[in-house]
Amino acid sequence: MIPSYVFSLVEKDLDNLNQNLKSMVGARHPILNAASEHLFSAGGKRLRPAIVILIAKATLNSNIILSSHQRLAEITEIIHTASLVHDDVIDDCITRRGVNTVHNLFSTKIAVLAGDFLFAQSSWYLANLNNLKVVTTISKVITDFAEGEVRQGLIHFDLTISIDEYIEKSFYKTASLIAASCKGAAMLSKINSYQENECYLYGKHIGLAYQIIDDILDIISSSNYLGKPIGLDLKNGNLTAPVFFALTESNELKYIINSEFENESDIKQAIEIIKSSNGLKKAKDLAEEHIQTGINIIRSLRNINQDKYHGLVLMAQYILQRIY
Q1: For residues 165 and 9, what is the distance between their CA atoms, to the nearest angstrom?
Q2: Domain 2-321 sits in which CATH superfamily?
Q3: Which residues, 6 or more positions from 14, have their beta carbon under 8 angstroms from its beta carbon?
Q4: 8 Å CB contact between 105 and 62
Q5: N or C: where does the chain have the smaller number of CB atoms within 10 Å of the terminal CB?
Q6: Is-contact 55 305, C-beta < 8 A?
Q7: DSSP secondary-structure letter at 187?
């Protein structure tokens, strides 16, 4: 199976990462420390640091990565986790990765402070990489997160936004971090600027695909698989790819969303309409396009070791496989 194999390529590196994360985000205050412990004990796939490590191995043409690559992988996971803490507060999500969210376990105030603390810690470690180009590239991501959340907050239940605006929002919320961390890893390997930018585009496209697939799973998956309530994005008025495509076929869906799910049964009915439409298929096709573009980009990097880049192809295929 692709999933177990692709992560086995970076298993030792991820083991080191898991050991380092808790010590990296240790806080003096016991409540902040407990919140950090809770977050990283919940685990997760560690997909973003795995991608950073795969980029590092491919661009170095070595199974041994630099300590700066390892630290960048850790920084990437801390930034991602910080964004999840704030997302959960905004969306009032009760569970994440199958465990209680920080604001549910402690309080909203503690969750906001924990997220801020993690962003601050990531910035400190990022500065200590002593590479201004990497700092500039990664620090932009935190700005993108904020812009993505603000944009999303302004368009809840808005039926007038386009699929292009959805893609742009998805870039800010998800693809920006993956793209920037891929480029950062390439910069640390000291390859040429063209190859750095190609690594960025690889990350951008698989990041967009990841978000589209996440949005599909919000409609078709189970709470146990997602680790968060099913249909949460839809309930909060976050219109996503499968919803946009389904809306072109159903006036009834438009009416239900316009009414902001005023009846208790509206969410369930909306999900059934989306499932019976071509919305899911068209969203899958869109995700596949981005995955294939990412694979084509990484395959075009002829100077990257052919055996090593194969892990990046497998990672792209793994992301797509989540919906099959």
Answers
A1: 36
A2: Farnesyl Diphosphate Synthase (1.10.600.10)
A3: 7, 46, 49, 50, 53
A4: no
A5: C
A6: no
A7: H
Residues ≥6 apart with Cβ < 8 Å to 195: 59, 186, 301, 303, 304
Q: What is the pLDDT of residues 236-272, one digit of tens each?
A: 888 999 999 999 999 999 999 999 999 889 999 999 9
Angle (CA) 184-206-296 rounded to 5° is 95
* pLDDT tens column, 174-231: 999 999 999 999 999 999 999 999 999 999 999 999 999 999 999 987 655 555 567 8
Contact indicator for 152, 172 with CB cutoff of 8 Å = no
Nearest to 99 by CA among 39, 156, 151, 54: 39
Cα separation, 241 vs 256, whole angstroms? 17
How far apart, in whole angstroms, are the C-alpha atoms of residue 292 and residue 147?
28
Please check the confidence at residue 101 and state whether its pLDDT lies above 90. Answer: no
Q: Would you say 99 and 42 are in contact if contact means Cβ atoms under 8 Å apart?
A: yes
Question: Which pLDDT score is estimated for 4?
Answer: 62
Average predicted confidence (pLDDT) for the chain: 88
DSSP, residue by residue, 202-225: HHHHHHHHHHHHHHHHHHHS-HHH
Looking at residue 36, its amino acid is: S
Tell me if 173 sits within 8 A of 44, measured CB to CB. no
The one-character DSSP state at 228 is: S
Is residue 165 helix, strand or coil?
helix
pLDDT tens track for 110-154? 888 888 888 999 999 999 999 999 999 999 998 998 888 888 878
Q: Where are the domains of the chain?
A: 2-321
Q: Which two tokens stand for residue 131?
A: 């590479």
Q: Which residues of 152-168 are buried (b: 16+ CB within 10 A; e: fewer)?
A: beebeeeeeeeeeebbb
Strand partners, 99: 96
Q: How far is CA 193 from CA 10, 133, 198, 254, 280, in A?
A: 25, 11, 9, 46, 38
